[in-house]
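User: quick one, fold this
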Amino acid sequence: MDSKNNSLVLTSHSRLANWLILNHNRQQNQKKAWETPNILSISSWLKNVWLGAWPDQYLLSKIQSESLWKKIIQNDVYIKKLSVIHKESLTGQAFKAYTLVNEYRIMLNKKNFLETTETHSFFKWTKEYNKQLLEWNAIDESSLMDRISKFIDEGKINLPTSIIFKGFKNKTPQLQSLLDSLERKNVK
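Assistant:
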C-alpha cells in the first residue's frame, strides 16, 4: 500500500465500501483535491491480494463456480428425476452450503453426511466439485480467505500497518484465521 498512513478499511460487502467512500468524498467537498480512502470489500481485497501474489492456481468466478455446481447436480442420477426449477434451486443451495462448510470449517467426513439422501448427495457433489477444482488447478472464492491467510503467514503479501473491519456481524472460523494471520504479522 502506498498511502501515507498505510491503513486499509475492509467491509463485509461492496455496498458498504461504496457508501463509506461516498460519505468520505462528501466530507471533503470543501477541498479542491483529496486522497481517495483505501476502502474495499473484503472479497475485492482478497481477490486483489490473490492476483498480486502471482498464485499458481486459477480463481474461479462466482458464475464459474455456480456453473460447475449446476453441471455436477444435473449429472446426478437421483436428481435427473426432478424438474428444472428444483435443479436450479438445488444448485443455489449447494453452492451456499459449500461456502458455509468452508467458512465454518466443517469436516467433510462421509459418516457426517449419511443421515438423509440430501446430505449424502451433497457429500457426493462436494467430492466431485473438489475433484474438478483439483483437475483444473483452481480454487473458488469460498476457499480464497484460507489461501490468503496462508500467504500472509508465508510472508508472500505486502500488508498495510493497520486494517479496520466494518460491517461484519459474525466472526467465522475462517475470518478468525485471517485475523490471526494478520496479528502474527503485527497488523493492527
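User: anything notable?
Assistant: The two ends are 15 Å apart (CA to CA).
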